[in-house]
Amino acid sequence: MTDAPPRNGPDATPARDESPANTDWEAVFWDIGGVILDLESVQAAHAEFVATLVDRHDLDVSVAAAVDTWRTAVGTHFSEREGTEFRAAREAYASGVAAVVGERVPQSAWKPRFDEAVRAAIEPVPGAVETIERLSDRNLHLGVISDVDDRAGKRLLEAFGVRERFDTITTSEAVGRTKPDPAIFEAALEAAGVDPDRSLMIGDRYEHDVNGAAAVGMHGVAFGAEDGPAVSFRIESPPEVLEIVDGKREGYRSH
Q: N or C terminus of the chain: which is more exposed, having fewer CB within 10 Å?
């Protein structure tokens, strides 16, 4: 549940390839951030939390400046990891708190307020919850593959009332690697017991979600992600996944 840049990318005109649309799909895997969880609501939650830090610690700094400090510290935490090594978001947030306040603060002193701000502000991507609910009634495997702390990711799905709709939830913390490392996709496929060529992966980042999934034989569904040769389908809203599953949407590959 980290802050992320806006989804955008270069225009592209993919060449059509009918084959993905004719697949009898076995599984649909979802990323969380940017696909199920609206990232702007996450940013709002973090800003609200930082505002409480400024007030509680009587800091002589504007909330805007404090939010910038927070985001820089959180971003630095993740940028310092080696390759696809997993680094916990909760540790990034602890670093953010320390950067804003000026000293390390015990987790027990800030985490409850952080969790409260998140619960109050987060929103699902429009149409995601309804699509997950409808897919769960289909004869296919429904899974999550996400770069989140395991417990936090499951709590987010619970907050939106969809955790029990998923057959498997594969997180970077559980695997120890982040996308696009093949290990996290392979772990999800093994847990699901499905064929990668009959599996869809919905993601908002090309290299991490779409290309990473394609590298192990899955079909990438780009939701805001950049175009590229790994894209099998592009959607503008989550409900369009139902058209893909029902074989009503042409697939394509960029060449």
A: C
Helix (H, G, I), strand (E, B) or coil at 130: helix
Cβ contact 55:127 at 8 Å: no
pLDDT by residue (tens digit) across 30-87? Answer: 999 999 999 999 999 999 999 999 999 999 999 999 999 999 999 999 999 899 999 9
Q: Within its chain, how far is the Cα of 67 from the centroid?
A: 22
3-state SS assignment for residue 219 = strand
- What is the structure's pLDDT at 119? 94
Distance CA 176, CA 178 (A): 7
Range list of H helices, the chain = 39-56, 63-79, 89-101, 107-121, 128-135, 150-159, 172-175, 182-192, 212-214, 240-245
What are 200's strand-pairing partners?
Answer: 28, 219
**R_g of the chain computed on alpha carbons:** 19
Beta bridge partners of residue 170, listed in sequence order: 145
Instruction: Say if residues 15 and 254 touch (Cβ distance below 8 Å).
Output: yes
